[in-house]
């Protein structure tokens, strides 16, 4: 099963993504981790991305897509993709990559969490960069792209109430995936 996780920072994508990847026996591909690893390892893509990161800018789509495609190449039969796509442009590029390999995305799992809950979760992490202003900016940045991204994936979106205990949310997630498989 090929799944992308769609949700703002603090929605629980990492926790639930890890659980569902383990359950489905597919890799969980965390794009932020990949990007940091490429930068740390000094790969060609990492060096190009570092220039943007060092300036505090977002890494351009073409570089992020290159990193994602390298990682996905051996896993087109199944994966959980966390942190990508973040825009319709990235979603279209992912679709094109998969189609070229006779594959397509099965599910866009949308993590539904209110902004106040997100802010509380992110504040509780006590990371130096999680100030109220930065948190609001990160949530706002996601919300600005969310509607268009969900529209792009219409017909493949599984809505997930991502508030509650980890095991409760995971059961709802599995129920949503089962329903999606039955509908397909």
Automatic annotation (TrEMBL):
Ranges where the record places region NMP: 30-59
Pathway the protein acts in: Purine metabolism; AMP biosynthesis via salvage pathway; AMP from ADP: step 1/1
Binding site for ATP: 10-15, 125, 164
UniProt record, GO biological process: AMP salvage
Keywords: ATP-binding, Cytoplasm, Kinase, Nucleotide biosynthesis, Nucleotide-binding, Transferase
Gene Ontology CC terms: cytoplasm
SUPFAM superfamilies assigned: P-loop containing nucleoside triphosphate hydrolases (SSF52540)
Catalytic EC class: transferase
Pfam (any one): ADK
Residues bound to AMP: 36, 57-59, 83-86, 90, 127, 138
One GO molecular-function entry: AMP kinase activity
Keyword Amino-acid biosynthesis part of the UniProt annotation: no
EC annotation from Swiss-Prot or TrEMBL: 2.7.4.3
Domain of life from the UniProt record: Bacteria
Main localization, broad class: cytoplasm
Similarity comment: family membership: Belongs to the adenylate kinase family.
Function text: Catalyzes the reversible transfer of the terminal phosphate group between ATP and AMP. Plays an important role in cellular energy homeostasis and in adenine nucleotide metabolism.
Oligomeric form and interacting partners: Monomer.
Protein name, as recorded: Adenylate kinase
